[in-house]
Amino acid sequence: MSNIKWYLSKKTSPYENLVLEEAILRDENITDDIFYFYRNDNSIIIGRNQNIYEEVNLYFAREKNINLYRRISGGGAVYQDLNNVCFSYITHSKGSYEKFLTPIIEFLKSLGLNATFKGRNDLAVDGFKVSGNAQYSTPTRMVHHGTLLFDFNIEIMQNALKVNPLKMESKGIKSIRQRVASLINLMPEKITIEEFVQKLVSWFAKENNATELVLDLDLYETRLAPIRKERMSDEWIFGKTPNFEVTNESKFDGGIIRASYSVKAGKFCQFKFEGDYLSKVDTEIISEKMIGINYEVEAVQEALTKYDLIDYFGEISLNEIIEVIFGKY
Fold first, then answer.
1. What CATH number does domain 244-326 carry, 3.90.1150.10, 3.40.50.620, 3.30.390.50, 3.40.50.720?
2. Residue whose C-alpha is closest to residue 228's, from 7, 5, 11
3. Block means of pLDDT (10 residues each) for the chain, length 329 residues?
């Protein structure tokens, strides 16, 4: 039977923390089950199978220097900062989401919170979502990981993530504010994030008779480096996105404009502008020039500034064209 150990990371980057999680998961020399705790600063973590362009406001993310990380597990996108706490179970045993979340529920109850398992993979307190979770398996082990929303920034979250309206409709809610809540606002006694982390680690160590995992990260770098290189590559972050098609339409003072396009491997492969804007020159010229350009705000801005847009789109501005292509940002 495996012993149980815990590890609290002092790093704050997903390219350290999630890379270390994956390295431990794949390290056959580590035979113990591991409780792993960490915090990521200013990061968007997306699921392995998600379309990053549909899930993330990339323009906003770049403006705010938000880290982008595509994890190896499925599930949805989350925004994380230092006021969120992440936890992982790296284990030889298999189990449902509810099984692995039961200890977290018990810990939250020890703080006086009415915590329950909710939906497919969430934790709730007083009906509000406070934790989302995902899993990934190898032939010999698995990882169950999740995030605890201790005191999240709702404004950053709403701007950074594009919430699928189907998710909101299926839950009968109208906004993120109705769906999620910060643990700090639900606690009977207020504590700091540092105190919360210490209580979390201490509780797990005591309840499981666990000892600390000792890692020399400098020596471990030979395992971390190749994983980090792959996870930081554009091919992994953007190339895993499936091909997709979009049609957006908006009405501005200069008229109605519609942008219909297809994206393959992160580049426009089909494009068409339509509308009742007062063009003097055929916009098909620009539509054709869009093919092959990266699906990025900066790339489109650079391409369009080469043209006298008044001739092509009348009074519709560059920012309005960008908005109809990418949505509001």
1. 3.30.390.50
2. 11
3. 88 98 95 97 93 86 94 93 97 89 96 93 93 92 96 90 56 52 94 98 96 94 97 88 84 93 90 92 92 92 94 93 83
